[in-house]
Amino acid sequence: MRYQLGIVGGGPAGMMAALIGDRFGIKTILIDDNPALGGQLIKQTHKFFGSKDHYCGYRGFQIGSILREEIAKSKVEVITSATVTGIYPGFILGLHHKERYQEVGCDAVIVATGAKEKFLIFENNDLPGVYGAGAVQTLMNVYGVFPGRRALMIGSGNIGLIVTYQLLQAGVEVPFLVEILPEIGGWFVHAAKIARAGTRILTSHTIISALGEEEVEGAVIAKVDDQFHPVSGSEVTIDVDLICLAVGLSPLSDLLWQVGCRMEFIPELGGYLAWHNERMETTVPGLYVAGDVAGIEEATTAMLEGKVAAISAVSHLLGPSDELSAMQREIIRELDDLRSGDFSQVVSRGLRRLYDRP
Ligand SMILES: Cc1cc2nc3c(=O)[nH]c(=O)nc-3n(C[C@H](O)[C@H](O)[C@H](O)COP(=O)(O)OP(=O)(O)OC[C@H]3O[C@@H](n4cnc5c(N)ncnc54)[C@H](O)[C@@H]3O)c2cc1C
């Protein structure tokens, strides 16, 4: 079977890209490895900020449902529980689906595979009870499973702060959140909420070890100096059965390495990613990126990038037009506006470095 547009990854970026492709009459296939479309949105229970156009006031999982319903009404073909394992010459997507290897041919491809969680090295970090924040969100918010009784959160970026709040809402105690930097990384509003609920946020602190034989029974934390070395004598043992790591994400870029995109290391955007311009075009003609795989940000920018990538793909397939260019310019302007705030300075710096590389 051949499609004009193949989209790998059915999170906010991929779903939005598919809807744009469909709007222009492009025969589109959307492939995701989870049982349902939505990506990270399905586990996000907090309300989004921003404008009405960006689903302000809706919770992440509600945005996922809205987009899923729109896709169900469209002509987009969807394959879930299918992992794309390679992109081969002629844009043949190799996928593992229902215990079988299958191939789908496309004229253009958007890779919107999202991100993976970074891990942290410390003694006993392989004990059961040490989780990534994403896994904790999935257990609690998707499967309704209690991940522990008393948690230590590592990392004060927005994911660490939001997941701490979600743990507290679920009835899990979170006595401490430790952050190695001297300042809290995420938004004040999220930090204030968890502080009011009783979580002590310890900046310039880190985890030294997890304690326990068969599973986590405690943790040792310590202060760090200005070189981020633990300060001897400052160690404190705390009673927890869950250690939750929220120490950053990196783009899930394996397919982009494999297909031969030029890759760049941009720490501000999470690590290695495919070089792309603001139209989300990579160095492989006809192949585009969108969302966290194009640099770690958040769901609203992922949706806008999905639109931009899809418009580039439509121009490639049908030929450029004034309508497409104007529409794309407008969305790029929206992205610039969203990235103009203080909290987007790091991302904006990373994007400038990426765009400046010839
Ligand atoms: C663990 C985690 C927790 C987060 N929590 C929050 C939060 O609380 N609040 C917030 O605002 N933002 C949060 N974010 C950020 C936000 O969710 C993301 O920025 C946004 O979802 C990115 O959208 P995306 O479409 O690029 O990727 P995703 O939403 O990650 O979707 C990518 C999809 O592609 C699928 N996929 C990957 N590889 C393949 C493959 N080879 N074949 C088929 N399918 C594939 C993935 O399984 C996934 O379904 C979180 C991100 C992560 C990773």
TrEMBL record:
Listed name of the protein: Pyridine nucleotide-disulfide oxidoreductase
Highest taxon in the source lineage: Bacteria
GO-annotated molecular function: oxidoreductase activity
Keywords attached to this entry: Oxidoreductase
Any one Pfam family match given in the protein's UniProt record, by short name: Pyr_redox_2
Record domain FAD/NAD(P)-binding: where: 4-306
Natural source organism: candidate division WOR-3 bacterium
